[in-house]
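Researcher: Last one for today. Full complex below.
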Amino acid sequence: MGETLGLLAFGDKGWGDEILAGLGVTISLFLATLPFGIFFGFLIALAKRSNNRLARLVANAYTTIFRGLPELLTLFIIFYGGQMLLQQLADLLFDGVYVELNAFVAGIIALAFVFSAYASETFMSAFNGIPDGQAEAARSLGLGRVQTLRLVIFPQLVRLALPGLANLSLILQKDTSLVSIIALPDLIRNTRIAVGVTKEPLFFFSVACMIYIALAVITSYFIGVIDRWSSRGQAGRS
Amino acid sequence: MKLFRTIAIAGLALAALTGAAMADITKVRIGTEGAYPPFNYLDSAGKLQGFDIDIAKALCAEMKVECTFVAQDWDGIIPALLAKKYDAIIASMSITAERKKKVDFTDKYYTTPAKFVVPKDSKITDVSAAAMKGKTIGAQSSTIHANFLNDLYKDSSIKLYGTQDEANADLAAGRLDAILADSAILLEWMKKGDGLCCKFVGPDFNDVKYFGEGAGIAVRKGEDELREKFNKAIAAILANGVYEKINKKYFPFSVY
Amino acid sequence: MDFDLLIKYGPKLLSGLLVTLQLVSTSIVLGAIISLPIALMRLSKNRIINGIAYSYVYFFRGSPLLAQLFLIYYGAGQMRPLLQDMGIWWMFREAYYCAIFVFTLNTAAYQAEILRGSIQSVDKGQWEAAQTMGMKYWPTFFKIIMPQALISSLRPYGNEIILMIKGSAIASVVTIFDLMGETKLAFSRTFDFQVFLWAAVLYLVMVETLRITWEKMERRLTRHLRQVSDQ
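Model: Here's the assembly. Have a good evening.
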């Protein structure tokens, strides 16, 4: 047992520092994707509610595609396709310039696509959860469109969308593991490297699973904090 | 410390675009796999080492250009060259007709035959396609070995792996009946650890149609200037003894 | 569209599609069987029984499917002598069975939660009514409660199957030639980006077909639950 745990030591002999570095990449990727995912999810929800038919069509197609494709395939398409597209664009504009879509950015883009497709549905049902009377009441108070959205609709939207978004962020946290396949040295990839050298897959992959579960516990805790904060106005009424 | 560095790098990477103009060839970026010992691999400090790397460094010194190395997973190694992530691949890549459709190659810089390896207690002695019917054979994906097996060993079950290491591990674990790979790689693996499980069987495979004309350096199509520079440098290090020295460092026999 | 490519690799992609469908359907069915006892354990008032089921569910829902697959696939290789003694190595030897094993355990955890939620959502009055009619606990559970629970959980079940179809793409990293595996193989030989787009279309067709038929089925099966006003 002591010997096995020694595998997690830091420095040249143990794999603790490599695994920690991988965890750093996993967490950075998660935190970097989350705001983009939420923001685009919100925009797509707005597009779905818009009066413009084209906007609705595009937004619905986007949702169907990115909720229907395996995350791994989306990742490959962005990683290989995005790189080719960027390079072709660069070749058109400049001569002899190379551009690179690195694995980290490709990961953010792909994961944000998937996240926002799901998040847009969450926002949609949150929008539907706010009675129309609210907007009408705001208007009769003399609030403008933007003001109504910002002061009346948005705070309620956040509260209604939060459980759904929380669930999606827990899924996102696990989905980050897929980037190990496109060469990003995240927790899983560094674990695989450690396994390749030490031939101790049971130990290392168990450790990796436990780290993900610990992450889920921590994230759930923060979600709970945010949830209590966002529903503080509801206290005592229900 | 490493953790902070990783995060810092990841943060910087957000500025996805890196632009650089290529004028006269003074800098060459070289793509390699880094998971193919003893030809190219990462040492415990995370630095690229191996026969390919030493050859690459010798060639760059000969060409008087500054070289930087990029490690890239094997499956994506040609797409990344085409996408200009680097300018040349020095990663034990065999010169085959199929690959020549996408990239240009220099002259070869080494040739080693392919061979089958089986567990020591295996009863396999004949490795022809007919004899291997129903057997499970492993190889690294996107390699000459994978293509050879897929095209000729149609009655065997072919398993393909992202790295050679994973294929080796599954042979040692008893999931495979045999693997086909480069003999020099297998020789190195069978020296120690889980590689002690296994032995060579059958003849050398070097049919040019499948196994190509040896390992060459791949460059994008039309980059003739770079290719010619490499060719001259290969000839030069073969002539001046530098090649021989590197060869001896890794193998007791000539790999050219 | 490159027709030579389509003729050469189209059939291979379709055979991969078949593997994906087999993988998913087998795992979903086996997972459904295993999920029932787990859901019942989760409903148990016994804290130990509940705790075991809860840990199981938390483990499989809290860590990535990819990590679980690696754990079982490579872990089994390490435990080969033990598994051989137990006579089950033949199963773990094959990547395909390893994947089914992992997918089954994973989906069982999700399905157990769906089942638990829907059993709990069935009105308490149903239990009481059955009791007053003299029905025993288990007949009530299987004849009265379960059918209602299953109907109300149709939608989450449909979602779970879709998630499994998508999730199954990772089988390709342990040498299985499912749709994703065949796609990667075709790409590695052609470096033609098109193959990824073909695979995307096939996955979308699969998922959308399932979604639409599922929706129709759900609407049919739940028509008695709807009030006249929302028809």
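Chain C touches chain B through 15 residues (CB under 8 Å). The domain at 20-179 of chain C is CATH 1.10.3720.10 (MetI-like fold).
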